[in-house]
Automatic annotation (TrEMBL):
The lineage of its organism: Bacteria, Pseudomonadati, Pseudomonadota, Alphaproteobacteria, Rhodobacterales. Residues 99-110 have a biased composition (Basic and acidic residues). This is Small ribosomal subunit protein bS16. It comes from Allgaiera indica. Transmembrane segments: none annotated. Belongs to the bacterial ribosomal protein bS16 family. The keyword Ribosomal protein applies.
Amino acid sequence: MAMKIRLARGGSKKRPFYAIVATDSRMPRDGRFLEKLGTYNPLMPKDSEERVKMNMERVQYWLSQGAQPTDRVARFLETAGQRDKTERKNLKKAVPGKKATERAAAKAEKAAAPAEETAGE
């Protein structure tokens, strides 16, 4: 059974609240889970201790059983000092998309055309 430590959403519309749970990876996000390991409240200030609460003994147990944390939970574990920090790179973030590149080229062509006409007279 492929185990995951992930977030299960609770709370009402536009007021998210998450439970950190150990679950089978085939279960739905808010579906059945084996154990609740903590909570995450994204509406709290980032420096608040109440923002992320985890039972670290149980988290360590599930990690030793082979459970894989999701990206967000792995970040929580890094800030808690339970995991080594991993370097993340998003090399394509700063590169404009295909349509944006086409628009920029068209705009440059359009700007160059009137400049050539005035220079030729």
